[in-house]
Amino acid sequence: MMEALSFFSTSWMSPQLLGLTALGTFLGVYIGAIPGLSVTMAVSILISFTFSWDVNNALCLMTGIFMGGVYGGSRTAILLNIPGAPSAIATALDGYPMALKGEAGEAIGLSTVMSVIGGFVGIVVLAIAAPVVSDFALLFQPRDYLMLGVLGIMLVGSLSGNNLLKGVFAGSFGVLIGTVGLDPLTAEERFTFGVVELWNGISPIAVMIGLFGVSEALTQLHFMDKTAIKQKIDRIIPRWSDVKKYLPLSLQTSTIGVVVGALPGTGGDIAALMAYDHAKRVTKNPEVPFGEGAKEGLIAPEAANNAAVGGAFIPMLTLGIPGDAVTAVFLGALFIHGLNPGPLMLTENPQMFWFTVGNLTLANIFVLIFGLTGIKLFAKIVECPKGVLLPLILLLSVVGAYAINNSIADVWWMLGFGVIGYFMKQYDYPVGPVILGVILSRLMDESWRRSIILERESVPDFFINLLMSPLSLVLFISIMLIVVSKTTLWKQAKGRIFKSAS
Amino acid sequence: MKKSILGALVALSIVATPAFADFPQKDIQGVIQWGAGGSTDTVMRSVTPHAEKELGVDIIMTNRTGGVGAIATKYVYAKKADGYTLLMGAENPQMYKTLGLAKIDYSDFTPINILARGVPIFVANNDAPYNNMKEFTDYAKANPGKVKTGSTGKGGLSSIVLAMLDSQIKLDLIKVPYNGDGPALTALQAGTVDIMPAVLGASIEHIKAGRMKVIGLVDNKVNKLLPNTAPITETFPGLSTYLPWGPFFGVFVKKDTDQAIVDKLASAYSKASHNPEFVALMDKRGFSIMGIGGAEAVKFLESYRSVSSWIVHDAGFSKHSPEEFNIPRP
Amino acid sequence: MSAPLPRKVGELFFGFIVLAFSVFLFWQAYEISGFSELSSPGSVPMAAAALMVLAACINLLKDLARPTSIDTARSFFRVVLPPIVAIMIAIIFLFGIVLETLGFIISAFIFLLVSIQFLHKKGFIRSFLLSLLALSVIYIIFRLVFSVILPEGLIPERDIMAWIGSQFSSGA
What we know:
By secondary structure, chain A is mostly helical. Chain A contains 23 helices and 2 strands. In chain A, helix 3 (15-33) packs across helix 17 (351-372) and helix 4 packs parallel to helix 15 (325-336).
């Protein structure tokens, strides 16, 4: 125990490690906030950069970037409606409307505190239950991943406002966009029209920047005469009563975040979307409707995506299996530093576990510090005159799209989807479901095909085996419950329309 | 002072005069075919810093993923043959022509260095009722359509190894596709698939921890990391024409790059690939260091291409016959 | 929920485009592997495209049932695509076209200058200085701090950078 404590505090005691973690977290917040710069990319650049360093130093910097980066995505999502990373998409749904109402400061403050709470939940689960959770994560079969995907796509219902039909269209469109390129399983070309640049598919980040950032910027051009909203910046640190009020919700969604983060096939982006859906289902009477700046809609995804960080480390540290793209790069880094990542790593290097836990805790504290400082300055960005702000958003979108893969093709996709998104908004098509579909497309496509191959193309066998497995059964029942609850709601809504029409 | 005037002249001349002796004069771009965290990425990022020291400039590495590496390959091919853009890749381009993925392969590049080679093995779930290749093939024969194997797409390592096996014995297996050996090995531990061919390096730590077991070694001699596993040629002697065979990692420049530049890069990467730190790293991961360049590398590349292309063709999933490209039979 | 709103100008046309696009995608999805196997690469794209066609059809029928918009075709350019939006779309597309040939620094600077001048309307010097400031910040963050390689175009950045680097190293 004493030993664990001493490993835990390694990075707290050494000024150098402390400084590197702080630096990493600081950089991470900005990497996360800038669309197109991803944590995955930053960490892999750091691998060569820290090549000759001591492994602890390198890890401190990388952990900081990871923790800060996941949090940072919320910044631009709230302020500019451009999610810095896919895991911040759900944050933009209610965070940006808050900024439009002059509550950007409060939104950032609240999202920071809830991110940190989520981060701690992830770390605690990692510290006390890592082996249990990783064994649980391995229970998931392709059909269970498929059902997770279906659970996620149900969110279309919540994202489409009062026009489910257009939402279904947008969601299917997203799923289809996600399948463009060489099929990852058979290398068959899908929707590539013989163009090599399309083999790689359409980058979800390009679609995201276009649909959210550019289309919103173009829509804002309609309101050039309106002066920028004055931001209330007197209250940055959220009220204690608010924190207490939303604590149960953030703990629930943090749990979703840890589990989804720990699954080797899913990460923070899916966790955040599922958390948003959960919040929408359990919140009976939000003060402000969802999609118009509900605090619940901001808290849920922010707690979940930071909890997913701890979750992603669970299979990585215990089994050497990455929980997401970033931990995959971490495994590479550990290998380069001669640590032999794998199921034996903790036996061979027992200090690694508590060192990482301690480091994540430290990084999480720095998120709180860096997150709550400078908010006033950031909130000012939104007060910038539109004539200057909008060109800047557009330029940032172009650079961000280019940075994804150093390719001009992504810039074109981004611009294309920006214009499509603009027209969709004009004709009341929700754009949220499109990006939801893009993100879940691969999970659903691959797991569906794997599970049906495993059953030798037999649908009856698929359902028999589904009912035989307790885990699959639980997931299946949850889907059914949601469907049924949606149907009654839908009926009520239909009844209302009918009444008003007659 | 003289140096800085010269520098300014070089900097401002848009069409840089070829001064091969002074190569490199600016940062070099390294284009990695596979994603961050994958084995190609890891190998490249661990060898390149040693080469940077030799060359005295930075090599900025970017991952250009997609199309089983074809996107990166085509990108580098479209650049000038000036040695400032390196292709950092794995074995996949050698199959592009036969699989109809691209019209270019490594014969359109000059190898700087083939760094290392991996050894394929068969691994199985711990609960599988077989412990060696003989038992496995007997079991699969007795239970057609029951054994589930992980596969990593057409032209991937597992498909080629299974095609090799198929040339010796016909088995009815369920092939569950994964996009990479990482997810497939996870599925193996989860019991989703029973057995799969994988590269030793990706599975060695899981084997050591007892989370999966080795069934066979796809090589013609015993590997020092797996002293108790008999090479597959003992069960299927017919495979010896194909072996040794395995995925590899190499650094390339576009063909027709000036020989002086190739030599400079080759010497840097050759030294880097024999750096004790790098060698130790590769050893631990079960990769065999090759560190070859020049004619030797070209010969190795051709042999790999001929074996893989013909196996894939004979197994019936090639788009074009290797004959169309004058690829000789092994 | 009151009586169905009248159609927005161009909404019906948009509905037709959406439907035609969906049908086209369904055809493309079918081309991938036809109705061969449930696990074929085309299965999920086909299912998604089928849903798109279905949703687009019902939507179009619902739109047809709504009263015609009171606006004339000309008001499309007032309500849906005002000149300011159309011009900005054009400017940003032009930016995309010249990005690789002119290089990032030049094209982004011109883009900022033109669009700030066009939208902000506060004098040329001000636009010039704002563009310069914004561009330097973005260049420093992306190119220098996070070493994202932006299109070089006409300015040989790598050579200049190497030269600056050699100045420092020879000075040291």
